[in-house]
Amino acid sequence: MDPVIVHLGDISQHMQQLSKGFLFTLVIGTTDTSLIPGITIAGAKPELTHYTPAADAEYLLLGRCRVIPIVPMTPDGKPTPALITRAAIKLTGAGVLVVNAGARVRPNIPIIDLQGEPGRDIRTGLAINRSVVDRVFENGAILGENLARISKAIIIGESIPAGTTTAMAFLVAMGYDAWNRMSSASPINPRDLKITVVREALKNAGINRPLEDPLEAVSRIGDPVILAIGAITIGATKQGAKVLLAGGTQMAAVLAFIKHMYKDVLSNVAIGTTKWLVNDRTADLIGLVREIAHVPWPP
Questions:
Q1: 3-state DSSP call for residue 208?
Q2: What is the count of structural domains for the chain?
């Protein structure tokens, strides 16, 4: 797929460093939300979704998986997008770093651990204990600051099954209209199921008006990956790095997190995605970015 970059500022000239080699950071995590039948196809069975991020990370670095015998697949046998990511990294000669934000299954490769925890099912109304959220944010920001000393051009990707559902919950909790605007890895976007899950999560979390604190929103109905990517990006951009968020509508949630935590760095951030996602009629990444950051399209 041809890449599409949604610019949040004039960072294109800085991202030209990518042609000279750059740092690709994969942030992994899990939540028990992925165990809800039909919510995600990031695993042949719901219980296998907890292995997907670890296996993605292993394949990205090694070209093979260790925690499972084959690459992660959808229920109908389609392989993980990590195959494309690995090919792109090989072509560009990028360095790769894996960050564990809170994965149920740890990959058997060298990683940086932010001392987080897997998220619960967001329908419980308490996704991650607040003390853990605060710790991951602090550690992520420290990591971002140090990554910026290594490279001024950083790309951050993610692997977290059911991440679009938790991202929707986070965005709604922060006051954004994310209903019916989140993408899906599935050819048939289970939008009604996602909405039902998010409504139950909001009710059980006691959220009936927008929250002001993104850390509290993550704690109640978010996920560890939104938290970690947001923290790393804030730390890196405050040190002068330019960050490309590589992903889909989940990165809109990261963008909102950054805006509410430290909006001054938004001009150093962009979202890189595919034309397939931009043209997805069941989602609206461009609209979400406009709402969050007031960015005109096309850039």
A1: coil
A2: 1
